[in-house]
Design a protein that fits this description.
Blueprint: H1 5-13, H2 17-28, E1 44-50, E2 53-60, E3 66-71, H3 78-87, H4 92-97, E4 98-103, H5 124-138, E5 143-148, H6 150-161, E6 166-172, H7 181-197, H8 201-212, H9 216-219, H10 221-231, H11 236-247, E7 265-270, H12 276-283, E8 291-296, H13 302-305, H14 307-320
Parallel strand pairs: 3-4, 3-5, 5-6, 6-7, 7-8
Antiparallel strand pairs: 1-2, 2-4
Helix pairs in contact: 1-14, 5-6, 7-11, 8-10
Length: 325
């Protein structure tokens, strides 16, 4: 029987695709094409003051329990990125033992008004520093981080600077380097369109590629339509500011030999995600004794396309670190 988190994850990777397809069929029954990626009211939303303005934090669960803090990706908010996953039946054992705190990046929440023209959006380090204000507001001493994309980078950034406040990290599609020239050019074009023309078809296409990779409609047409509809309601001005902050990110400045992340990390990607190489690079900069890299087959957006497998990996990871026994 597996005795370590690495062995558990290896076993998870060997799960048969047939069984996984059966699991996904049951999941799809709960994901009709008319689904909306909006808050279902399960969380209590609070605004937290920080040195760079307020952030919206949505809390779910008993606040006396150990904390899990989530941070979302570009074009999404806590409801769109995490709600369906944390509602998934296999996440119930985790919800019973933890309190979930979802942080929304400034101006990314549902129905957000456009930020003022003279507003200076926080850079990635400043977004990470806002977590300290969230911890202070709720009296959280330490937490387990769960982030996707830009949110994963923010949580990783925080763990580098404040390892004593972080117990462990689950990071999906995490990038540890600066933006390359191709990303820079593509994002600059998207930001210009978002600011001048709103959410254009080109911007929607980019967000779909960012989250799902290619051929999303072929894999799951209904899910693709749900997210296209979701992106059409995002505040384009505020999103352009968040994208700009992510585009200007600095390198995390970590390596296996010097200043690596000191806490356990579950480093996750989907095999069809455009960010696979980013996670491989990130993995090479982490302490192998504290890191597990997991690539989920046949998907790009793992929380939506393979929730059962991610829930199981999350549970095994927490179990391996002494939680969820």
């Amino acid at each position: 029987m597996p005795t370590t988190i690495q062995e558990n994850i290896a076993l998870l990777n060997m799960m048969s695709s047939d069984n996984l397809e059966d699991d996904l069929k049951s999941v799809q029954l709960h994901s009709p094409s008319d689904r909306r990626l909006q808050s279902d009211g399960a969380c209590v939303e609070e605004r937290v003051r920080t040195s760079r303005g307020e952030v919206l934090v949505a809390v779910r669960g008993d606040r006396s329990k150990r904390a899990i803090i989530t941070y979302h990706d570009l074009g999404l908010n806590y409801a769109a990125n995490f709600q369906a996953f944390f509602n998934f039946v296999e996440m119930r054992p985790i919800l019973d033992k933890f309190c979930i705190y979802h942080i929304n990046a400034p101006g990314q929440e549902e129905g957000a008004h456009s930020l003022p023209e003279d507003y200076t959006y926080p850079n990635m380090d400043e977004l990470a520093s806002q977590i300290d204000f969230v911890l202070g507001h709720f009296g959280i001493r330490s937490f387990i981080g769960f982030g996707v994309g830009a949110g994963a980078n923010i949580l990783a950034r925080y763990a580098v600077n404040s390892p004593q406040r972080v117990d462990a990290l689950v990071l999906i599609n995490c990038t540890s380097t600066q933006a390359g020239w191709t990303e820079w050019l593509y994002q600059k074009i998207n930001m210009r369109q978002l600011r001048s023309n709103g959410m254009t078809q080109s911007a929607v296409d980019y967000l779909m590629w960012h989250h799902f990779g290619r051929s999303t409609d072929d894999r799951n047409h209904d899910l693709a339509q749900v997210y296209k509809e979701c992106f059409s309601h995002v505040n384009p001005i505020n999103l352009a500011m968040f994208i700009d902050a992510y585009l200007r990110r600095s390198d995390l400045g970590i390596s296996r030999d010097n200043n690596s992340i000191k806490v356990p990390v579950l480093n996750v990607t989907g095999a069809l995600s455009p960010h696979v190489e980013d996670t491989v690079t990130f993995n090479g900069r982490l302490d192998p004794a504290k890191t597990s890299w997991l690539s989920i087959s046949d998907c790009g957006m793992v929380l939506e396309e393979q929730p059962s497998k991610i829930a199981e990996a999350f549970r095994l990871f927490l179990q391996g670190e002494g939680y969820c026994r």
